[in-house]
Design a protein that fits this description.
By secondary structure, the chain is an alpha+beta fold. It contains six helices and 27 strands.
Length: about 450
């Protein structure tokens, strides 16, 4: 539709109305945001001088560090968690980035999207004691909607260890499992998603003025997707989100979707109960794994009777499950794979099975591998359970951990699948897919 304006003022009003209608439509029907792996050539984290397989090794190392931190956090009682005011994750350990815009001037940042964390924050100008950052810190003074939160604000209590500053402003300190931290002002501002201007005003963010630890210069902040009142999903009032995770080498962007647009459908859809605890206890999303079937061999989990025995996590590359379950899967696979083992790679990485897939007379044909979720079975392609860690060497991405520690369904097991968190209906859904297809 074309409008003829008799004055520049009328044109401005019409333009603002059109933008508002576009934003409302995006919110009502849902919206999507670009998503990339941190090691994608399009990522600010990408370093062309680091060899491909060194990046894979680093992702594996981050998995072990993240698991250690998450497991430690999960053992706390709810009262300890409330008093600790910390995130279980290791700083900079997330694997996927999404692009968001802050403020009325739509300042763009690539931030880690993390289902194991809650506070959304970025470094802010003027940074008094910040870690070096390649991109310029966010300048809230330019945004007309930026507003400091007060100590009386209920969200102030969910932003970390808080104190009252000048004028009763809410100062926060949010620490991570490795000792890294962000400290600054809790505030509200406009946060925009995607290319169709899905903008939300009054969103609580952490404006960090003193941040340190193991953050890298490529990082510009974090988007908290965990189960908490202060997480982005709760603040913008969406009860479902979904993503389709590309692999780390992809040069293309995939999407993370929010609201009604996040719903996935199609032949082959698998659904399992999604369990959350009261949001003041921890940020995790839990599912129940009953066991596996490898070829004709059934392997039952010793934790099968425990509801919510595993968390699903976008920020951990490996899948870490009880040792007896992984040992059973590894044994069943080893009995069918006709390739020489690479024990050096197993020792160096700590992974259970590594094979020389380009060795003479190697037959790396895998039997069907099916994971038994509560109420649903999902067949896993070989690319979801094996990863190439050096030229011609493939290793199993299922890793055994003590049954007393936290079990994690990691992102390699989710790659090239639509994964929907239907929090409102308590369902997690999987559907194998081409993540770069226009339909997603």
């Amino acid at each position: 539709m074309t409008f003829l304006c008799k004055s520049s003022l009328i044109c401005v009003f019409i333009l603002l109305a059109q933008l508002s209608i576009s934003s409302i439509a995006s919110k009502n029907h849902g919206f999507d945001v670009d998503m990339i792996h941190r090691d994608s050539p399009r990522s600010p984290y990408y370093d062309a001088s680091i060899p491909k397989f060194e990046r894979v090794r680093r992702a594996i190392d981050r998995s072990f560090a993240r698991h250690k931190s998450l497991s430690s956090f999960s053992k706390h009682t709810s009262s300890n968690i409330q008093n600790s005011f910390s995130s279980p994750i290791v700083a900079d350990s997330g694997e996927y980035l999404i692009k968001i815009h802050l403020g009325t001037h739509r300042y763009p940042i690539w931030a880690i999207a993390d289902t194991g964390s809650t506070l959304t924050w970025t470094q802010c100008f003027p940074c008094e004691a910040c870690y070096p950052q390649n991109a310029k810190p966010y300048n809230p003074a330019i945004s007309t909607t930026y507003k400091l939160a007060s100590c009386a604000d209920p969200q102030c209590q969910g932003a970390g260890k808080t104190s009252c500053g000048i004028g009763s402003r809410c100062n926060y300190l949010y620490s991570y499992g490795d000792g890294s931290y962000t400290a600054g002002n809790l505030a509200t501002d406009t946060v925009s998603f995607g290319k169709k201007n899905a903008s939300f005003s009054g969103v609580y963010i952490g404006c960090g003025y003193a941040n340190g630890g193991l953050f890298s210069a490529q990082g510009a902040g974090l988007v908290g997707l965990g189960n908490s009142p202060i997480s982005i999903t709760n603040q913008i009032n969406v009860t479902k989100f979904s993503y389709c995770l590309p692999d780390m080498a992809s040069t293309l962007e995939s999407k993370i979707r929010f609201g009604p647009k996040a719903e996935i459908r199609g032949q082959g859809l698998v659904s399992t109960p999604l369990i959350t605890t009261p949001s003041n206890e921890n940020p995790f999303y839990y599912i129940t794994i009953l066991g596996f079937k490898v070829g004709s061999t059934e392997i039952k989990s010793s934790q099968a009777k425990q509801k919510g025995n595993t968390i699903i996590d976008s920020g951990t590359t490996l899948t870490l499950l009880p040792s007896d379950l992984v040992a059973g899967v590894a044994s069943a696979l080893a009995s069918t794979i006709k390739c020489s083992r690479n024990q050096t790679a197993e020792q160096e990485t700590g992974l259970a099975l590594c094979y020389n897939v380009k060795s003479t007379n190697c037959d790396f044909t895998l039997p069907p591998v099916i994971v038994h979720f509560d109420e649903g079975d999902l067949e896993l392609p070989g690319t979801n359970i094996f990863i190439e860690i050096e030229e011609g060497v493939n290793c199993l991405t299922l890793q055994g951990v003590p049954s007393s520690s936290l079990a994690i369904w990691g992102n390699t097991a989710q790659m090239f699948m639509k994964t929907e968190y239907d929090v409102g209906n308590g369902k997690l859904k999987f559907l194998p897919a081409d993540c770069f297809n226009a339909s997603y």
